[in-house]
């Protein structure tokens, strides 16, 4: 039975990663063929970094991802603190509400945000652009931050905040010296997850971006309408490596946090 489970797991992993492996291999292909490997080259990576449209879209994506992730981390941390102080029934209801954006189809979120921005744009005379894009990304990032931080509050001693105040800390210093270090692994994990989701989001960005705020996924989509260039393979390889590094960093942080709790 164990052998069958291992074989099944291996097949699943192959199904997930063989397409990515093929993409990475053909990003180094001399020719534009997607079926015959003619030779090894870095030309497509060089051409990628000389492509002004892609580089501009990459800059837009990074700006949006960083801004939205920082704002979502601050808002999500504040929300998690408030939720942790609630009683059982209100806490359950609020947590169910925060989980809705996670399980809700992205196209529903994207269309609803687009309609909301259109409503306000008609009355406040503003256009779709970085502001609408960042607000949209914050909207779907905040629940992931809350989801990462709430377990840290459950693991923490509920009396530690009062104990810090009894020992002379004021409420603000008690938070920064006692509470924040305890929940920091969750805060960092929430930030990294928000950054990752913002980096590769397409559906919501497609409905809420403007003509001057195209993100990288939208640019890639517009390029795939024509003949697919190997530059897209090179770009996708770089994105995959960046996301992989972020996920590895997230797992390292979680393991170190777990190890510290084990020592305690």
Low-confidence stretches: none
Mean pLDDT: 84
Beta-strand residue fraction: under 5%
Number of helices: 11
Helix content: over 70%
Shape: globular
Question: From N to C, what is the helix and strand string?
Answer: HHHHHHHHHHH
Class from helix and strand fractions:
mainly alpha
- What summary fits the major beta sheet? none
Rg, rounded, reads 22 Å
User: How many E strands?
Assistant: 0
Compute the separation of the termini in Å. 38 Å
Written account of the structure:
This protein is mainly alpha-helical and 264 residues long. Helix content is 80%, strand content 0%. It has eleven helices and no strands. Helix 1 packs across helix 11 (230-263). The chain is globular. The two termini are 38 Å apart. The model has no long low-confidence stretch (mean pLDDT 84).
Summarize the structure.
The protein is mainly α.
Itemize the secondary structure elements and their pairings.
Blueprint: H1 2-26, H2 43-49, H3 52-84, H4 88-103, H5 106-124, H6 130-155, H7 160-166, H8 171-200, H9 203-208, H10 216-224, H11 230-263
Keywords:
264 residues; mainly alpha; 11 helices; globular
């Amino acid at each position: 039975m164990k052998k069958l489970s291992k074989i099944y797991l291996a097949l699943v992993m192959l199904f997930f990663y063989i397409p990515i492996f093929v993409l990475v291999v053909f990003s180094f292909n001399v020719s534009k063929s997607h079926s015959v490997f003619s030779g090894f080259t870095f030309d497509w990576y060089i051409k990628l970094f000389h492509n002004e449209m892609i580089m501009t879209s990459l800059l837009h994506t990074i700006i949006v991802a960083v801004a939205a992730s920082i704002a979502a981390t601050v808002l999500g941390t504040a929300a998690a603190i408030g939720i942790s102080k609630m009683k059982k029934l209100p806490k359950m209801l609020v947590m169910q509400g925060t989980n809705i954006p996670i399980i809700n189809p992205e196209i529903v979120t994207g269309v609803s945000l687009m309609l909301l921005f259109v409503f306000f744009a008609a009355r406040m005379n503003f256009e779709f652009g970085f502001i609408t894009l960042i607000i949209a990304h914050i909207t779907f990032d905040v629940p992931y931050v809350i989801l990462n931080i709430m377990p840290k509050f459950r693991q923490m001693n509920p009396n530690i905040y009062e104990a810090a105040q009894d020992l002379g800390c004021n409420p603000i210093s008690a938070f920064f010296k006692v509470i924040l270090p305890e929940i920091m692994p969750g805060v960092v994990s929430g930030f990294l997850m928000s950054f990752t989701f913002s980096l590769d989001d397409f559906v919501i960005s497609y409905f809420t971006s403007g003509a001057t705020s195209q993100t990288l996924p939208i640019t890639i989509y517009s390029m795939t309408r024509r003949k697919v260039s190997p530059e897209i393979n090179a770009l996708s390889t770089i994105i995959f490596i960046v996301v992989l590094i972020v996920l590895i960093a997230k797992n390292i942080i979680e393991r170190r946090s777990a190890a510290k709790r084990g020592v305690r």
